[in-house]
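Problem: given the chain below (466 residues), write out its structure.
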Amino acid sequence: MKKAKHAAMAPRNETYLSPDERRAQGKALRDKVPREDQGGWKAAKNRRDPIELLLESNKGRLPQLIPIRFGRMLQSPFTFFRGSAILMAADLARTPQSGLRVQACGDAHLLNFGGFATPERNVVFDINDLDETLPAPWEWDLKRLTASIVIAGRHLDLSESESARAATRTVRSYREHMADYAFMKALEVWYEKMDLDDFVKEFEDEKLRERAEERIARARARSVAEHDFPKLAEHHGELPRIKDNPPLIFHPSAKLVPGYKAGYANAIALYRDSLREHVRVLFDRFRFCDLAIKVVGVGSVGTICFVALFMAGDNDPLFLQVKQANASVLEPYAGKSLHSNHGQRVVVGQQLMQSASDIFLGWTRSKDGRHDFYIRQLRDMKLSAMVEGWDVDTLETYGKMCARVLARAHARSGDAARISGYMGSSEVFDEAVCEFAVEYADQNHRDYRSFVNAVRNGRIRASIES
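Solution.
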């Protein structure tokens, strides 16, 4: 497929058009790409072998951690979907596109949304994983989110009709909120956010609300000094050191990560330069103490992910996550990043899509120039969904909230009125994308079975964690 160039996202105001005029332009796009065409999924005859693509995605990962990645993906079709964004990116590139682009997440499944603290110490609900972010068609994010709803529904043993209902209402939430953003003032869209307290109120189940409120209260009460530092660090002589807990937390050898000790001073200096000037003043209060590898997530396992410990005083720690940033899985289909450093690509994407971002968000590069990284606080009131035990109403409500913040994220960089005009006010678009999500969930299951067979016949090595 021909690679797309970076087309403009939200149009510049050389010629002012009202929201109604831009909605009409979006509606006109249906002549070339009818909304019904967004429905359904059928794999192309020349579709790449999914196992080949997964093996290709191991390039640049730490070899000893790859079996852990595949072991986590092996647990279920749901965890497989979380770790196989590269497969869906290739498939989405073959689906119809309206021609409108946004800053896309690139991996917008339902567990890449969650709670975290803003610099003002409020806790918001937003997209919280943007490793794959890149300008791309807005439909791709929505289709990945909706497919994840169906796959999660099957994981929870919901009926097919219940999973489809949750998916349809997820799309409807996106469509209706995008219609709202189409007529909001630009600054109103930019300042829009969802506080986690408001998010919790959307759930009808009182016990679920109480459990969520308890988790939020614990997250707010937890401090780095009192909770994270004793768990992650111990004193060795003058400076504290991160505790080893292999294979998930360990100090790498020079053979595994060549030059990481010699190059950290240069990498920290580059990171410091990427911070806003007033944040540098704060960062300069901290002294670097230690660095260790920490295995995180599913799809990220095997990429280099450090946890770095800094201290501003005897009981004043700062943990930063230093995460390798490779080319986005969307790049072969949506065009190369405009940023030469993929860490910067992730940081800029986060700042465009999130209602608020970590004050320590920045980027750097290894001394040998082989690896790009982005950096943020390791834990800052971060909360992720725990889907086990959800019923259909919980899944549906959560999907609607994810769709709402996704619509807001897209409206910040794209043209909400044109996107809204394309989708329209009827349920035609909702039903089409739901149809795609259900059929793509079937594709995910077929790919998962191929993956299981590849593990059984030794083509892929997977390590099951105890």
